[in-house]
Design brief:
single chain; 132 residues; mainly alpha; Ferritin; 4 helices; 80% helix; binds fe (ii) ion
Length: 132
């Protein structure tokens, strides 16, 4: 999506969050160590569905000003999903009294929310008006 985006701000937002996502994976590793369970990779079909939608958007709107708003819509669907999941896990960690786990999850949740807000800002201040 970073490669496909036309707006430099949007490209940069995608690249920055890609780097953050690597840190999110590292934090999950730390969490599994804290709870003394093996970390296992699992495919998320919900996210795969959103990625498929975004691929269609990229194909359909390539070369038009509607591409960037479409990419943002897809990326925000991913962020909202992540916000939902991390929010749930923070609550569960707090319920279980796992303060250190909750703190790690909350740090990631904050970054997901910041990314979501940045994407809204890019949409509202530049790319949406251009597409309209
Ligand atoms: Fe994210």
């Amino acid at each position: 999506m970073a490669e496909a985006a036309y707006s430099l701000n949007l490209k940069q937002a995608f690249q920055t969050h890609e780097g953050e996502s690597e840190t999110h994976i590292e934090r999950l590793g730390q969490i599994f160590e804290l709870i003394k369970r093996p970390a296992q990779q699992k495919t998320c079909n919900a996210i795969l569905g959103i990625i498929e939608e975004s691929k269609e958007v990229m194909k359909q709107f390539k070369g038009t000003d509607a591409l960037d708003p479409g990419l943002i819509a897809g990326a925000q669907a991913v962020e909202h999903y992540e916000i939902s999941r991390y929010g749930t896990m923070v609550t569960w960690a707090n319920t279980l009294g796992l303060d250190d786990v909750a703190e790690l999850l909350e740090t990631t949740l904050d970054e997901e929310e910041t990314t979501d807000e940045l994407l809204s800002q890019i949409a509202e201040t530049t790319v949406n008006a251009k597409a309209a």
